[in-house]
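hiii so um. not sure if this is the right channel but i have a protein structure encoded as tokens and i wanna go backwards to a sequence. like what aa goes where. can anyone help
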């Protein structure tokens, strides 16, 4: 038999961190989670799988309208037309208590109950599938503890939404261990919740996270997809990862130390992005670009970050034919100045350099200087943004430090242009 294991579709989830600008592939990014699941369905039909397992988080939360639900139901119908059954457990994002709107699913679909584990047996294939959905968005008990022991003489599969004993960046919902799962005697555990692909173990049973079919932000890098499993009543023969993503996130770092001309920096950035596009199979690419180094281009780069960002966006559009999107630009360049000598000078340049160094080493002093100025801005930002994401909190330690660093680099650029080194 052959089955497909996927999880964490997060249909219509907003792809975070993408600022709109002319030439960016906005429509492709907005539709990425849907197109990725279409790829999963296409793959299932093409490979003639017997059934599909979805280990939670089909949606990103309650439906804003019925469109995402109708889209998903239509894809399930395509699978039903190909005589492919679908088995689903709900996760923390699409828990029973979170979804107030729903669309009926076709007859080929089974959604496991949230009240207790249940088992579905497919006699013609010799397989027993065990699962339980999340009743609420924060399940703190080990759901697997109540799963039944393996049924004799058939392939046993468990579907579970869990972070096991914990995975970085993921809440410890339905906590358990690989040892507890293996003790059930199943042949394969189809897990969800963790967005990084991981084969936890192969012996005495397979335990696997497929990752999500489509990366959603700059921490979900590289290829994303699902797992195709070949098995029989005796166990699993092979597990194959297949890419399904239509857009990919990548970090690109450029060292500008030896670059003296802007044309040279442009050429290096464009070549790097074109290489990443080839590596991504010509998918849409969301790029987090970091430029580092002590360079004569420092003044141009930091004097007007907004203007320089627009230049970089234009370079990416030209190099990629509109297939690359600048997600974020990190600038860590420095001026070709002797900062130690500057700091010892008894003039306004020396005073400013020393003051920046002092503020950089004293977070209390920096807060006392910055907070009265930024306090009004803080109050204008919605509480759900400023209190849960440091990026939107102008009083956060991270943003204070970033603002100080940006101001320091602008000062050094001005000093370099005015001959402050002389």
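sure thing!! here u go:
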């Amino acid at each position: 038999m052959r089955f497909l294991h996927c999880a964490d579709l997060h249909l219509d989830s907003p792809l975070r961190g993408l600022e709109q600008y002319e030439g960016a592939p906005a429509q492709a990014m907005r539709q990425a989670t849907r197109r990725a699941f279409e790829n999963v369905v296409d793959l299932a039909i093409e490979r003639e799988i017997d059934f599909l397992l979805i280990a939670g988080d089909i949606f990103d939360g309650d439906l804003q309208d019925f469109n995402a639900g109708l889209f998903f139901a239509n894809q399930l119908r395509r699978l039903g037309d190909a005589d492919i059954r679908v088995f689903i457990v709900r996760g923390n994002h699409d828990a029973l208590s979170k979804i107030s709107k729903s669309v009926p699913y076709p007859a080929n679909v089974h959604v496991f109950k949230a009240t207790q584990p249940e088992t579905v047996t497919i006699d013609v294939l010799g397989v027993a599938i065990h699962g339980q959905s999340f009743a609420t968005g924060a399940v703190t008990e080990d759901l697997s503890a109540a799963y039944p022991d393996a049924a004799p003489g058939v392939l046993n599969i468990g579907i579970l939404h869990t972070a096991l004993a914990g995975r970085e960046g993921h809440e410890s919902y339905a906590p358990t261990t690989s040892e507890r799962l293996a003790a059930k005697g199943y042949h394969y555990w189809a897990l969800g919740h963790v967005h990084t692909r991981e084969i936890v173990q192969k012996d005495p049973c397979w335990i696997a996270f497929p990752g999500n079919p489509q990366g959603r932000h700059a921490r979900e890098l590289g290829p994303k997809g699902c797992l195709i499993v070949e098995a029989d009543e005796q166990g699993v023969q092979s597990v194959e990862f297949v890419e399904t993503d239509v857009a990919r996130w990548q970090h690109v770092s450029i060292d500008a130390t030896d670059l003296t001309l802007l044309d040279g920096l442009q050429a290096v950035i464009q070549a790097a992005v074109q290489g990443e596009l080839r590596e991504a199979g010509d998918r849409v690419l969301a790029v987090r670009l970091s430029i580092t180094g002590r360079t004569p281009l420092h003044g141009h780069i930091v004097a007007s970050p907004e203007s320089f960002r627009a230049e970089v966006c234009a370079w990416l559009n030209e190099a990629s034919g509109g297939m690359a999107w600048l997600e974020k630009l990190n600038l860590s360049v420095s001026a070709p100045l002797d900062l130690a000598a500057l700091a010892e000078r008894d003039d306004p340049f020396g005073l400013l350099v020393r003051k920046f160094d002092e503020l950089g080493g004293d977070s209390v002093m920096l807060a006392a200087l910055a907070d009265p100025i930024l306090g009004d801005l803080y109050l204008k930002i919605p509480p759900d943004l400023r209190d849960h994401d440091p990026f939107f909190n102008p009083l956060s330690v991270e943003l204070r430090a970033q603002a100080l660093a940006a101001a320091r680099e602008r000062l050094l650029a001005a000093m370099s242009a005015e001959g402050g080194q002389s």
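oh and The chain has two domains: 2-243, 247-417.
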